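seq as requested:
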Amino acid sequence: MIKKLLITVIAGGMLTMYSCKDEEGTPTTTTTKTCTVTGTTDSDNDNYDFTYSGGKLSKVVNTYDGETDNIIFTWDGDQLAQLNNGTYVLKMVYTGGTITRIDELDDNVLTGYYLVTMNSNKQITKLEYYYIDGTDEVLVEAYTMTYTGNNCSKVVNSFDSDEDGVLDMDISANITAFDSKTNPLYNMPMMFWDLGNYIYLSKNNATAANANIIGQDIDIKVTYTYNSSGLPTQSVMTSGADVTTTNYAYDCK
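struct tokens:
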């Protein structure tokens, strides 16, 4: 379901942990549990397993369509330094402690880069991808994000459909409703890998959206089942006749 929400990204470092209080004994005695999302599985066989080291995301295994990505996260202190899947690397470039560019390398060769724009709230508002062809650097794709409070309310993916150097086609999603619960994937560094996916950019869980894909409008509805911590354990996304069920797993201590 993660990729189906749309074809993003805020620098943050550590995956946000979520706490809840379980009442035990008298009303004044509480136990606080910290829950970390450890994986998602969906009915389309697009599955994610998350591994952590020192409280930071260190590895994601994504299996889909018979393929497997082993994404390794490298950190420099609290700053994300790079992601790699084999020889394919995304390397972060910082200005004043903020990511402003992401270099794309394959076999140690610079093949392209993303320019990153953030607003005053450190929310990503634009990503522009430039492909390097010899001495030419060509803008071939861009993402523009709009926010309402802590939630991403719109994503527009613009791209060059005929390789003439002009971004002439858009795919967009308006996220029109959210619940009041915590999105366990919010601000996750996976957003740098799964670009264009608004699920990582919103503090709350999206419940309704409208996507426009090459002139075709698609309505999306999502319902959730929550655990006692208020975190989703299952979501069901309906888009026309297409229904995708996603299950969430946690480690709570």
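The radius of gyration is 19 Å.
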